[in-house]
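One thing: mind reviewing this one?
=====
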Amino acid sequence: IRCRARAELSSGINAEYGGRVTKGLLLNIFDRVEMIDTCQEHLDSAREYLGDELFSRVSVQHCCGLEDFQPKPDHYDLVWVQWVIIYLSDFDFIELLKRFKKSLKKDGYIVVKDNITNKGCEMDEDDS
């Protein structure tokens, strides 16, 4: 993303069910950010968490599950998906990636950040 001029980066979407990435990363890069969450209460708390100035650049808040989300085609420079794919079936995740791919502008990116383990189920007691 740093390779492209800041003026060319206008729109990102955050599918992380929270606001840390929106506040700490995306709103530092993009003019507008959209947020997705299954819980309206989480979306409603974004104004307080982000503050009025940053929240004014959240153009849309989508209250729905990712398996139901239908992004606009050719709309985003970046799609950020973090710590939510465990809630999707393999089929729904693949279908979501296909929809997100269509939603990217030319030279856009999809970032998937998640935790994995090779030891079965592990609980992170510090961040759960």
